[in-house]
Amino acid sequence: MNFKGIARIVGIALLLEACFMLPGMLLSLWDGEPDVALAYLATEVIVLAVGGALFLWGRNARGAFYEQEGFVATSLSWIALSVLGCLPFVFSGQIPSYVDALFEMVSGFTTTGASILTDVEAMSRGLLLWRSASHWIGGMGILVFLLAVTPAGGGYTMHLLRAESPGPSVGKLTPRMGQTTKILYGMYIVLTIVNLLFLLAGGMPMFDAVCTALGTAGTGGFGIKADSMASYSPYIQNVTTVFMLIFGVNFTVYYMIVLRRFSAALMDEELRLYLGVFALSTAGIAWNIRSMYATLEETVRHAAFQVSTIMTTTGYATTDFDLWPSFSKGILLMLMLLGACAGSTGGGLKMARVLLLMKNLHRSVRRSLHPNTVRVVKVNGEPVSEWVLSNANAYVTAYCVMLMGSYLLVSLDGFSIEANISAVFSCFNNIGPGFAEVGPTLSFAGYSAFSKIILTLDMLFGRLEIFPMLVLFSRHTWKRSL
Amino acid sequence: MKIIVAGDGQVGRAVTRQLSREGYDLTVIDPNPEVLAASETRYDVMIVQGNAATMGTLRTAGVESADLLIAATSADEVNLLCCLTARKMNPSIHTIARVRNPEYTEQQFAMREELGLSMTVNPEKVAAEEIYRTLQIPAFVGRDTFAKGKVEIVELEVRADSKLAGVPLNQLNQIVGVKVLVCAVTRDEETVIPNGSYVIQPGDHIHVTAQADKLARFMKNLKISTHPVNSVLVIGGGRVGFYLTQLLLAGGMNVKIIEENYDRCVELATAFPKASVYHGNGTSQKVLDTEGIEHADAVVTLTGSDEENLIVSMYANQLGVKKVITQITHMEHTAMFEKMGAGTMVVPKDLCSAHIVRYVRAMYNQTGEMLALHRVAGERVEAMEFRVDENVRYCGIPLKDIPLRKNILLASVSRRGEPVIPDGSTAFQPGDTAIVVASDIQPPIRQMNDIFAR
Is A156 helix (H, G, I), strand (E, B) or coil? Predict the structure, then answer.
């Protein structure tokens, strides 16, 4: 293990976090809340000290940097970021329990949006901004940002991109890593600003618009109002529906559009599956809830918004969908599993993986009927290697095992089955709200500290797609020798 | 600058490694997804799977906007077709093709002209020439020539009984009686560019820059034999062996080749009636002893297996053969080999990649064209020859007043073909050529102006 190389990366990630915290600190000064600003200041000192120390220790890192180091550096960066990033909540006294604050912070970075706050509106704006900003950073990934702003040192960078970016196979857009990550963040920033402008055009207050745009871009879903998005105008809700969908699409598609390769972008099989699932689910739910709302417009708006928010794993809400009939809730629960596209800011299994698994299943069925048949699984006309397929299968196995294990552990708290299943699904797939006791109008505050820690880990496992986190628990990782 | 490397084999990998370190936009094409995956994780490159000679694959690799295509697949014909197709799709692209089959030697220039190739490289031929150069004076571990052969950088091992042992470099010229410059010293696997107070120790490998005519005096004063070898035993009659035999015979040396494949032996015997060709396993001690390995002036091991080459070379060294040269094809050249007692290492893929890298840097150049690029002491140290033009800074200023970057040495300045080993008062002028030695420099030196600190 190249501990120095890992320390260097975690160090830089922390130094970047310190920069990202500054807007929240300035806002709390502007709002005349010196105690919050002081909490920020104390955190900044700690983050800079730890990050600086790690960076200085590891700055001359030499030697090899392989898959294992990439995995460990990624998961440790995320843990370090969360463990220190939640300190402003604790120091300011607004979330006094450290476990609660950590849950909130991890929920932010993993773009989950599940909250333990019972009254969001009581929190000061400086802290709300940091909460929403963490969605934005976690959406595209802090290490992708690190690769974009620091000169690439050697060939290890691919391991970091692979470990942090979601999806069954991760590739670069351009030959050089620095350029690829700059393009990714460039598109991300432009789309976020466009979203912000659309929201401002609808008369949303500046602060609300910024927080909503940051939360939408990262497909996070922290609301700054108790009723999430319900009290905003239909225009703002529709804009958010569309932008959540946009951020759930693989960013490669946007790069194709930038390159004017429109047909390649529109023919993307994953994109078509994604939009197909969205349309079908919206239609199904709209039909199922038609008697609950006064007009067709309202019915479709709520159906589309909820489908979009769950599918892209954002987690806003415009209505209390916990009151919907079972069929609609069933659809939403299934959408929680599927998730958004690979290479987007969303979570879940990812459409690309679902596509691979369905095609592989189809082939296996054929094979059981005609044992000598030879078929190649293709996506977008390109053959998929057996290695990618078996990895996708392994991922789903690990995914199911983790979901079942966490569900059993969380069940110790004695909540309803519906609440426990949806809480685990929601956290692991980085969505936010669930059903029953953790429904869209309620929070995760009721769970015990133990369950909160389980759910916190679920969020991290889900965001980093299990394997990078799993490596941390392998004893081979921590041995200096072979 | 966008570069496409077609073929992720030995040479392709070596070129990729070097060029990605220098920060170009690289795309690598190969039909094998596994080698591509390895390249993608090791180097900062984009990968494209497919046949590099097809328009579809080249389009995916972005040939329309690329500046240079390096075709280094295992087949000459594919390389040529690849360059031809690329030129059709993008007439302004530069193309470099690896053409290694000796049968194409004759039409080399016609092909280059007809297909619009910027350059062809032949790793085996380059390797054979390198081996031939080192064989001419066996005392040199390595030998590179510059300025049309008038300046050389030679590598020498300092033995315990040498006059040089324990001598600080600023007294070197009094001791050997000629003006030479030690531009690099390799000690314990580390190569440094020394200053005047550096003391030479036994076991060091010193890299000496000297005018070709002064070099002979230098060797004589140090009582090092400068006689060329007379009889050479070549083990392995592959392509490098073929080219080397050609050169050695032309140089009037006796050549004995041991080759395992009978048909190949017949081919060699047909092509070189003057050489003695033996059919047998060149790695068997019995065969080697029968063929009189200990009587050879030099042994060159050129079989396809690096391990066998190393072992035979170590055996030859043990028997006291004066000059032993080992070819390394598959493994990466490391300092480990230097300690094995297997003589001089020749790595065809690295030599070939140095040729290509020189071309790439020259393409990038605005001023101060690079004329030659040699790797001295493994990978770390580079010796480069530049043409000084009007745009090179500090023209006419004495060397002691020029701010050079760290780990850089100006080893020689030639004016109208007459080389000078520089001292503090030397100045260069437009029209001169200059040889620069640099050790482990980042960012790399692409043009003459890159050697200055300001």
Answer: coil
